[in-house]
Amino acid sequence: MKGLYVHVPFCVSKCAYCDFYSLLGRQDSIESYVQSVLREAGAYPPSFLRRDLKGELSRQNPSIQPPANEALEDFPSAADSRQSTYKKTSESAQTFQTLYLGGGTPSLLGPQNLTTLIHGLLVSPLAPCGRELERGVTSVVESTIEINPESAAPEFLQTVKNLGFNRLSFGVQSLSDCELKSVGRIHTSAQAVAAIKQAQKLGFKNISADLIIGLPGQTWTSLYASLETLVKMGIQHLSVYCLALEEGTPLAENPPADLPSDELQAHLFEETRAYLISKGFVHYEISNFALPGFACLHNLNYWRGGEYLGLGPAAASHLAGQRFKNYPNLDSYIADPTGQIEYIEELSKKEKAAEEAMLRLRLLKEGLDTIALAQKFGTDNVEDIITRLQKLSQEGLLVKDGSRFRLTPSRIMTSNPIFARVIAE
Amino acid sequence: MKIHEKFENYCQSIRLFLVPFAPLVILFRCMENIRNFCIIAHIDHGKSTLADRMLEMTGMIHTTENAQVLDSMDLERERGITIKAKSVRMPFKSQDGKDYILNLIDTPGHVDFNYEVSRSLKACEGAVLLVDASQGVEAQTIANAYLAIDAGLEIIPVINKIDLPNAMVEECRQQLQDSLGIPGKSALLVSAKDGTGVSELFEAIVMLVPPPKGSSDEPLKCLIFDSFYDTYRGVIPHIRIFSGSLKHGDKIMIKSTGQIHDVDEVGYFTPGLTPTGQITAGEVGYVGAIIKKVGSIHVGDTIISPEHPETEGIPGFRHTQPMVFCGIYPINTNDYIKLTAALEKFQLNDSSIIYEKESSAALGWGYRLGFMGMLHMEITLERLKREYGQELIATMPSVIYKVVTTDGQFAMIDNPSKFPDPTRIDHIEEPIITLRVFVPTEFVGPIMALSDEKRAKLVAMDHPDKKRAVLTYEFPLAEMITGYYDKLKSVSRGYASMDYDFLGYHAGDFVKVDILVKENQVDALSFISIRESSQTKSRGLIHKLRKLIPRQNFEIPLQAAIGGKIIAREDIVALRKDVLAKCYGGDITRKRKLLEKQAEGKKKMKMVGSVEVPQEAFLLLLKMEE
Questions:
Q1: Which domains does chain A have, with CATH numbers?
Q2: B184 band by pLDDT with thresholds 50, 70 and 90
Q3: Which of A239, A244, B113, B417 could disulfide-link B523, Cβ–Cβ 3.0 to 4.6 Å?
Q4: Do A192 and A235 meet the contact criterion of CB atoms below 8 Å apart?
Q5: Are A302 and B583 in contact (CB < 8 Å)?
Q6: Complex ipTM > 0.90
């Protein structure tokens, strides 16, 4: 296991586009929630995996695990220290090397609960060996927490810093107050800017911001203003998502008239991409841009078909080749955090190979190396996939470079139909 | 009306004269204890339920529960209609103390199968005319009654479903009287559902239906009124023997073809096949003669003895002509062989289907199928898909046009894509039917408006009673097959019923419209239209297509053209955004499932040039009219 994800399902208000599992007005349950997360962590590995996983761990096949330094190969300027730590800690498959607190609104936990949570995780069976509580998560290669601008109080950020987090992901979404309001965000652009500045002042050197393309009333001028401000502030990472109208969300039920068309969204995305590249950012994944050395390792692990454990209601995991997910139900989670598995997905090797191919093609620079894929899943299980990849490259939808395939940059915005053809003909 | 008078006389003579003396009438041979009859009714008036009840009461089956024995195909039961005629032999002990053999010959209940109905009637001496007490006399009640009267059958009027709270027995009696001249007072009251009145009906059949005539000593003459295919025994014709007898070892000859077969088995339907030593004149049964070729047995043909090849055939035999055609294609071109096998097997049990190979530039290899009518087509396509697990593309149905070329020749063309170049066409004629629509008077207005839209010519309007009207139209068959029936039902809230006959070919100003998808002509979408409405139709079709074909990586112009002239156009703009962004805390499964769904959708697409066209684009055009 490389990654540990903790889902924090609390929010002060629900954004109009959001279909993540999160609850309003349940902050009184945070303490019991934290205890349950620690119980879930303490019970690792999940009982259904115990035998499998031990077997898996004992016959740990090195060819199945991508090389430990793969994460950094695109970023030669990455800090040496990060690389060496990464190498060292990757030896134990049972502990995590990246930590990600997502939500919901993790910043709603407050200093006390966050400290309890992190300390608890560090003494759990999951923690890298020999950690000392006072060092916090400093020696976890990458530890990220999502911060919402309105709940980024200086003392909370200070706690985050003290606990050893080395990466912050701010839910900025836009720096136009109009656009923020239109989708029910409860913070202002000024709050977002102030929060980031505060974090920088505290010494955070790996800061990411989320932006949304396709907000009601958005234009290139307004999007450019948001981008430019953030880039000038010196943040290292940007996640740029296209607004999706997810079934059941208020936005999908009542779409505002001034939602940008698909054409405009595509245009905004192209402009964003060009601008960020001109500012030295690497477009390393479909919706992620980073300065060299600042790609999000936790997310890279997702795209590389890596293993991770998700804790909390609705959290997804990938262990011993199986994906499984907890029920999205806070109350039942609090009552019985280890009995929440909603489904366990059993896929054939062929299906797993196709899944990984699809995931890796999202990595625009790194792409998909078919030799490595064949090594991992067996030549027989990847033959059909390679045939399909070749056809796609002949059609100009993928770019072939030796044994490696990459998504054609102009096809990023219409990549779903391409991935669908990678998965199955 | 002449036919009424004829019927009136017939009834009178039977009822007033023959009935009181029936037990005294002595007929020659031993046929006096046989009664061959059928049940005729409008669709859904309870024919199959009555048949079940009769089988139950004569001990042929023990319990029917919900099963309708004579409707053996799932689809028939689902749609509540009987497609294939079948028959059954029932022993019956009458109140007069004698034992009788009652042969019930089931008839198909839909307007598309008039010919089969007429052949089944030929095998009987009497017909139970069933009317739903809650619905009254409807179009097919009348059409079938006329067929029975023409065939010289004794008619026993029966009002069914009298258990329903909305039964209108008196109205039904009046309608029988008014629209058919049948004495309504004599109608028996029955509830096939609970068995009320069925015993009385048996007695009436014994008393009123004349026993068959004919002699076992005369040369063999049998009518084929149905057939089915058995994997081991080949084609099994259902027969009514008019004269002579049949037993194992006999030789038989098919009148129309002269083919000779050796009789392997003869028997009755009970309702399964029950072999017997011999069947003789007046009886109904089957004959097995290892007839392997499906096309060699046709309903209406006559079986005779090769020793007497001069024996005349039973009049009225004709090869049925399909009226409606459509192309069918496998979604995946590799499945063509599977489709071929499925069709071959299918035709064994429905010889009224004809098919021939056809190829489409857009859809590859497929078959052109001919059907007796629109309903026949819908049922067949449904069954093909269901029984053989085949995904199919069915092209827009077409009728047979008579295309007269400038050199004075003419061709009968059932496929728009085979039309000659417009410059070579002198004129085109289309098939016209005589359509009778039965409808409560309050719906006459909407029906007339609907029919006007369909280029119908009203030739008569009758009022069989105060509440109902019969509209008789000269109606283009092509308009019938593009959704008229469904619309008729909807504008009349289900009350209208209809019946039709083929009338002839009439000339009209027709054009062939071609559809182009990204400059590629899709032959399977070509259609024939009257010139006047061709542009409206084309616009409608193009508009529908635009909504059906998903946006793709490039712009797709959709055009409709007559000859080289574009008469309608819409463009599908290129796909600009279809991307999954957020990774939901590593919820890859959700992402993968979305993509799998897309991939699944792609499988149902047909490639037309570089464009993926969903199956629905072809299917929806079946019901293009809007």
A1: 3-302 (3.30.750.200), 354-425 (no CATH)
A2: confident
A3: B417
A4: no
A5: yes
A6: no
